[in-house]
Amino acid sequence: MSDHVAPDFEELPGDPPPTPVVHYAEQALLGALLLAPERLKTIGLLEPGHFANAAHSALFAAMRTLSPPAPEAHRASPVWPNQLLAAAQHRAKALTAAYLHTLISVCPTDAHAPAYAQIVRSGHARRVLRRHADLLAQAARAPGPDPAEAVLTRSDELAAYLNELVTAFPSHAGSMPRAPESPTPTFEASAEAEDDEQMLLATATAHPDELLQMRWLHEGDFTNPLHAALFTSLTALVRRGAPVDPITLVWEAQQRGLLRDGPGPAQILDLLAHPAGAAVHWGQRVLQGALLRQAVAVASRIAALSADEATSVHQLAIGSRRSLSVLSAVRGRWHQATSPLPGTPPPRRPAVLQLPPVTSVRPAARASPGTRTPARPRG
Predict the structure, then answer these.
(1) Looking at residue 339, what is its pLDDT?
(2) Nearest residue to 37 via CA among 72, 7, 13, 3
(3) How far out from the chain centre does Cα 330 lie?
(4) Which residues pair with 53 in a beta bridge?
(5) DSSP string across 91-128
(6) Do 305 and 132 contact (CB within 8 A), yes or no?
(7) Count of CB atoms situated within 10 Å of the CB of 106
């Protein structure tokens, strides 16, 4: 499994990080390898970056770099701990000979080194998954020139890492299914999102035929409940083949009970009064906002899952996949919105004329433009 996160704890060796069980497993593993260097061959794939504690990471890196002594020499003198301490102190000044003795004393048995290594890998996997979730939320909350592309890239990276986790941490007989509750983040409608939704409603009311191209947009993509309800009313009119204009839309909204406790007809007519551009463009902006909000929600759920220490890494990967599938559904609609419809011919390009050399033709008489009558301003 690839290593994505460098050690991020700079505390003294004896201070446990927020996940103390993993910290003690790191200590026990290093103690086992100090006692029996030959156990390095039994712990499987493990990298220095898998350790949460920077000092532990430095010590394990030294173990992988130096050749362990022969068993007889190791039993006769502390050559191995001394070599490791000298090599690791270049990266971890806080390491001392006394702490190496502490590592040895807290190790229950060196025979369990493979089990300790698996706990260390589990802690690392949980931290990396949380980091992926943070990067996904960051891409959605601080968008750049192409926010949707940035979110989809982070989503792909997250999905690839989840595939690694499912392979590296398979389920076992004692693995009970868990579905811990995860918070549903709340979003405050931004002024930009409100404007996009309003422009969509006004423009789609003025050009209702464009709604037929926007089956990828759903009511749930709107941040303002009134805008979502007006969009549903507008879509219903178009699908029935009914006349569409601001008055008929207000009437439809009234029939659906939107005016009972909400804004009055004058407010809705004012909202629809300034169409501009193309409805598809505004629809894409509304859908992009929904994509970004869903990415933040998925990241929040995965962060909540990773914070539950009772959830195994396999359960964590499966639960994260389920959360990511919700974003994938919005992603599919985004692909429909931004891709040409099947069978749509490509845009025409101007033909490139192959003109003969200038010396081989005689200049022809130039056609004069037709007479234009200037439009008179209406009085």
Answers:
(1) 85
(2) 72
(3) 13
(4) 9
(5) T-TT--HHHHHHHHHH-S-GGGHHHHHHHHHHHHHHHH
(6) no
(7) 12
- 3-state secondary structure (DSSP) of residue 42: helix
Residue in the block written with tokens 């130039």: 366
For residue 237, give the 3-state DSSP assignment.
Answer: helix
SS3 annotation, 266-301? HHHHHHCCCCCCCHHHHHHHHHHHHHHHHHHHHHHH
Structure tokens at 359: 């010396």
Q: CB-based contacts of 134: which residues, under 8 Å, 6+ apart?
A: 299, 303
Which pair of structure tokens corresponds to residue 257? 């009970």
Burial bucket for residue 374 (CB in 10 Å: 0-12, 13-18, 19+): exposed
Question: What is the Cα–Cα distance from 30 to 36, expressed in whole angstroms?
Answer: 10
Instruction: For residue 297, give the nearest of 208, 220, 195, 197 by alpha carbon.
Output: 220
The amino acid that residue 235 corresponds to is T
Q: Are 91 and 65 a contacting pair, CB within 8 Å?
A: no
d(CA 77, CA 100): 15
- Report the distance separating Cα 282 and Cα 197, nearest Å: 7
Sign of CA dihedral 198, 203, 204, 210: negative
Per residue in 304-346, pLDDT tens? Answer: 999 888 889 999 999 999 999 999 999 999 999 998 655 444 4
Rounded to an integer, what distance in angstroms lies between the CA atom of residue 13 and that of residue 94?
Answer: 7
Per-residue confidence (pLDDT) for residue 45, from 0 to 100: 94
DSSP symbol at 53: B
Helix, strand or coil, per DSSP, at residue 9? strand
Mapped onto helix, strand or coil, the DSSP state of residue 167 is: helix
CB 94 within 8 A of CB 13: yes
CB-based contact 132:151 (threshold 8 Å): no
| pLDDT tens-digit map of 100-132 | 999 999 999 999 999 999 999 999 999 999 999
Strand runs labelled E in the chain: none
pTM for this predicted structure: 0.78
State the amino acid at position 75 in one-letter form: R
**How many whole angstroms separate alpha carbon 111 and alpha carbon 376?**
98
